[in-house]
Design goal:
Two copies of one chain form a homodimer. By secondary structure, chain A is mainly α. Chain A has helices at about 5-10, 10-25, 30, 40-50, 70-90, 95-105; strands spanning about 55-60, 65-70. At the A-B interface, helix 2, strand 1, strand 2, helix 5 and helix 6 of A face helix 2, strand 1, strand 2, helix 5 and helix 6 of B. The first copy, chain A, binds a DNA duplex through helix 4.
DNA sequence: AATTTGTGCAACCGAATAGTTGCGCATATA
DNA sequence: TATATGCGCAACTATTCGGTTGCACAAATT
């Protein structure tokens, strides 16, 4: 199944998982210990992250180590790039609107 | 209602709306013209974006101009900041894991 | 004054989401 | 060989989501 990474990071648990494994690869059990919900629920989240390739896995015997896929995270960052110029810009769209409305009233 | 901005940008239509109004404030009708779905459906999306303060509004008579709230977009960027060091790092968590596994096998 | 226009709100509906429990199965361990 | 462990998969459930249509109402236009 193809998945949208933006939809994947919509869930707070999944964002927490990403933060967890960012510094070190972890097994599902180790990850699940950090949450209140069941191991299977956490495993489902991991699977969703894997489907959109935000995480990748490496099997070692019966253990599976999940790790962050930085490349995919970059894709999210790439979208944000569209807006970065906005918040670096002194005159944003609100300013433009206000100027427009003021001009209108003066007529 | 309090809303999660990550949940808000999960929907592709909402992301498109954000891009649309990034450069210029727009009314709901003008925004809706860019999509196949009904005006009301688009309006719902705008409302969700407003609830999490990704967009702000300015009324002018019976027209409402929606514009991007850069400040809130920055919050998303802030979260990504956690991972930025990862993809700038030569040795990421996968490398660490591989080294770990290799050491294990040599035992 | 009558009509059109811009907008929000409510009710409804099917699909997707996030959680649960139970199970099967391969790999470790005793 | 028998048992324990790590993991994924399937079935079920309540809730949320994204869409629709119909309506109300204030503001603009005729």
């Amino acid at each position: 199944m193809r998945r949208d990474p933006f939809q994947a990071i919509a869930d707070p648990t999944r964002r927490a998982i990403l933060l967890l494994i960012a510094s070190q690869a972890m097994t599902p059990n180790a990850i699940a210990e950090n949450f209140k919900s069941s191991r299977q629920a956490v495993s489902k989240h991991i699977q969703i992250l894997a489907e959109c390739e935000l995480v990748k896995q490496k099997q070692d015997g019966r253990e599976i180590y999940y790790h962050l896929n930085s490349t995919k995270m970059k894709e999210i960052d790439k979208w944000l790039e569209n807006f970065r110029k906005m918040w670096e810009n002194k005159f944003d769209s609100l300013d433009k609107l206000l100027l427009k409305l003021q001009t209108k009233q003066k007529k």
